Amino acid sequence: MPIAEIYGPDDFADRPKGQATPTPVAPARSGTLPRPLLEWTGEVERATAPIYERVKHVIPAIEWPLMAPTIHAINQLKRERNAVILAHNYQAPEIFHGVADIGGDSLQLAVEATKVKADIIVQCGVHFMAETSKLLNPDKTVLIPDTRAGCSLAASITGADVRLLREKFPGVPVVAYVNTSAEVKAEVDICCTSSNAVQVVESLNAPRVIFLPDRYLATYVASKTDVKIIAWKGACEVHERFTGEELRAFRDADPSVQIIAHPECPPDVLAEADFTGSTAHMINWVRERRPKRLVMITECSMADNVRAELPDVEMLRPCNLCPHMKRITLANILESLLTLGEEVTIDPALAGRARRSVERMINLKN
């Protein structure tokens, strides 16, 4: 069914001005390690050869001597710091395949974060992901290499907005996409990701559910359930730029091309797709189907990461880059491990409430 109602900041006259309050970041600790020499040596070449074998189809050989010394230094520092690197599917191949210990979508990273044994987590993703790792690992040090790595969805709604929605719809449960701040997570009943959004909504056994902040994911969920969805007017600045028209142009040029899309895309895009799913579901679809030619409607680096694994699949564009994901680089990952900055901290009173909504999602039975 269509979305029952949709609201945004302009619909609340008494809404406090400003965006979500960013989670504080602690200053870099003392104990900075010596800066390594980043040189292309025989040792570096030998140590990184297995990594380059994985990415040779997406990273030109001429570029590897520039990346490999930093990759080698990061992988050495991880052991020295007892650190683990979590990387989202949208990270560049040199990060996703070169230094990450765990890669995946938001749900995978949230689940894996609960299993981490290392003392330090370096989150290669955007800020709300680092917050989620901290919520689930309150006693561990969580670092994000660049605190400016934000998210248009997380910035579109505040905790005060959620409270206003609750006042307008008393008793209606609230589901928050994980692409939200800890402040927002503290005000909702349960979180979801794009891979389990329908399951989470239906688990509440309610006739109406407030679903925030992505209007397009809300539209997709509404099409898959009889639950009436009350949505928020947020959108992903990467996925909302795609159009059905550009996808139809690909079909006109080659009717055999396969198109898969993320549910954060507008409805006219999903209508042209052969498959719609989360980043993890999209990757699994490609692994199982092995299409000859594919248009993957999501962030560009994911197509590169999949092609590194499946070089026989020809990836056609369009794709859009996320400017926030691209703030994470090999250079600032190295800096983060050297200096232990920037550390994500969350007020314990806020964290306790936010943690419950994330844990309810993780503990939801499949």
From TrEMBL:
Binding positions for iminosuccinate per the UniProt entry: H88, S106, Y177, V178, N179, S194, H262, P263, E264, T279
Enzyme Commission no: 2.5.1.72
Superkingdom classification of source: Bacteria
Cofactor, how bound (note): Binds 1 [4Fe-4S] cluster per subunit.
Family matches, as Pfam families: NadA
Pathway where it operates: Cofactor biosynthesis; NAD(+) biosynthesis; quinolinate from iminoaspartate: step 1/1
Cofactor(s) annotated in UniProt: [4Fe-4S] cluster
Residues involved in [4Fe-4S] cluster binding: C151, C236, C322
Keyword line: 4Fe-4S, Cytoplasm, Iron, Iron-sulfur, Metal-binding, Pyridine nucleotide biosynthesis, Transferase
Subcellular localization, as worded in the UniProt entry: Cytoplasm
One MF annotation (Gene Ontology) recorded for this entry: transferase activity
NCBIfam families the UniProt entry points to: nadA, PRK09375.1-2, PRK09375.1-4
Record protein name field: Quinolinate synthase
Species assigned in the record: Bradyrhizobium zhengyangense
